[in-house]
Write a structure and sequence with these properties.
eight-stranded mixed β-sheet; alpha+beta; single chain; globular
Length: 292
Amino acid sequence: MVQIKEFRIVMPISLEEYQIAQMYMVMKMQQQSTKGAEGVEVLENRPFQDDLFGKGQYTSKVYRLQSKAPAWLATVAPKDALIMQEEAWNAYPRCKTVCTHRLTFLQCPYFTKFCLTIETVHRADNGTSENVHGLNEEQLAARQVEIIDIASTATDYWSYAIGSSSFDFSKFKSAKTGRGPLLDGWQDNCNPVMTAYKLVTVDAPYWGFGYRLEQALLAGERALFMESHRNCFGWIDEWFGMTLQQIRELEQQGDCLLNEKISKPILLTDREDCEQSFSHNSERHVQQVVHS
């Protein structure tokens, strides 16, 4: 049975700031989670343009997540069943158009019928828009909605598996922006504010464990959304003031470092090309991101 769930993550930042924050967060979390044979391998990262999304950034990645699998999954799948390929078309929105959707597609070679998509719309509101994805009546009837509070400290298996930051937003205050702390009801009182509306659709048509797999994936995505957006805000003093060009340069060099860490070929021709493509300042900044 296809599961449809919409997660709404309210953030105390602007739409323009979120684009920088999200790119910085992805780069840093990938560096932190990639060690040895596990982590993220970047196959492709390039600009794209088409009729559906307009202009944006296309990425193709492989995620090796064997140690993250729950014990019950290991009994029905081989060790490398959690090697997944992701293709993403990120055309970050500035208005309500088709370009406001970010589509992520994941496939697993051992589960060829398995499919998970994440469609994201970003809006400058506090999570009160009811059908940003333009769902039909049948989809709306099947959709579940959950609002994620980044100030929550509740944990479960998946938050442990993915990792949990130590930020206490009830006491947090940004040195650069003065934002925080996030107290009860902060979503209704903060300025600026924006929301990431993430529509997750998962289909695992396997008799006996398909529904359980779908529920596990939804729980895993929820934990990932929580942790990544907590980091977006918790790291605000690291990314605030950076330009999109600066982030792109760090992202490209970070991709090279990721593939080196996981012992895969780097994206550019060779290591010399990689090193010569970036300034010494950029290289030093990436190292600071990795180790901070």
